[in-house]
DNA sequence: GGAAGATGACAAG
DNA sequence: TTGTCCTCTTCCC
């Protein structure tokens, strides 16, 4: 499931299979019939991730269209290699969009957004997103301008896509732990140096997530094995300090990890390490 | 078999 | 802050 690193991987996967190819599209679920018809026969130029948004540019008869996909909480892409399978399998479950060539199939399930945008709408979307730590050359100062003047908790600011694009509930919980910052700390109390270090940490962690496909944030000296405990892989597939570890001992100080609802999302932190 | 919950975001009040 | 939407998995009976 999707934070920014997942979407960047989706873009890479789609480019590897479909970039430069003429595609067929369909909506087995019938909820994107018109859109699928509109892009069938188009050439897929490029898939690009911006924060949690996926933008796929397609051309047909020299006309440019952009497919915009946002996975939301539980949307997902799955891929099938037709050279291995031999024939095109029927869609399983609720497939909103199927993209296909003679060689490959990509199925999209459960997205919050699956729509076609014109260039003005694409610009409007990009305009309302903050800097993406995964995109090379992103300007962190746009995020700092908001954070340094805001009374909102830093944990809320980190989730705002107009402040930083691509950070979700896991990365925010983990980066705050790594810097010993309490989630309720107002943004304006975060120092410039601390912010720059946090940004650099997000750049490192999220790029690592793009490469590995999972979120690992625990320093090697704090891994359970290094602490004499049995290895534990979290349900989401990576190794984390606090995310979804409520009531479990902190990997650093053994204090039970706390959990609270904030702005309708769960926040996790160590009450001792993050005073 | 059914409820609850999940790495998200939006609108309404 | 609450309600709503989207789909699948996990957990409990």
List keywords for this structure.
N-terminal domain of MutM-like DNA repair proteins, single chain, DNA-binding, Helicase, Ruva Protein, domain 3, 4-stranded antiparallel beta sheet, alpha+beta, 29% helix, globular, 8 helices, 275 residues
Indicate how many domains the architecture comprises: 2
Query: What proportion strand?
Result: 15-25%
Strand arrangement, major sheet: 1-6-7-5
Order of helices and strands: HEHEEEEHEEEHHHHHEE
Number of DSSP strand runs: 10
Give the terminus-to-terminus CA distance: 30 Å
Q: What is the CATH top level name of the largest domain? A: Mainly Alpha
- Mean pLDDT across the residues is 92
Unreliable stretches, pLDDT < 50, 5 or more residues? none
Rg, rounded, reads 20 Å
Structure write-up:
29% of the residues lie in helices and 22% in strands. The model has no long low-confidence stretch (mean pLDDT 92). The strands form three sheets. The chain has a four-stranded antiparallel beta sheet with strand order 1-6-7-5. A four-stranded antiparallel beta sheet has the order 2-3-4-8. The protein has a two-stranded antiparallel ribbon with strand order 9-10. It contains eight helices and ten strands. The chain folds into two domains: 4-127, MutM-like, N-terminal (N-terminal domain of MutM-like DNA repair proteins, Alpha-Beta Barrel); 141-269, Orthogonal Bundle (Helicase, Ruva Protein, domain 3), CATH 1.10.8.50. It is of the alpha+beta class and 275 residues long. It binds a DNA duplex (13 and 13 nucleotides) through helix 7.
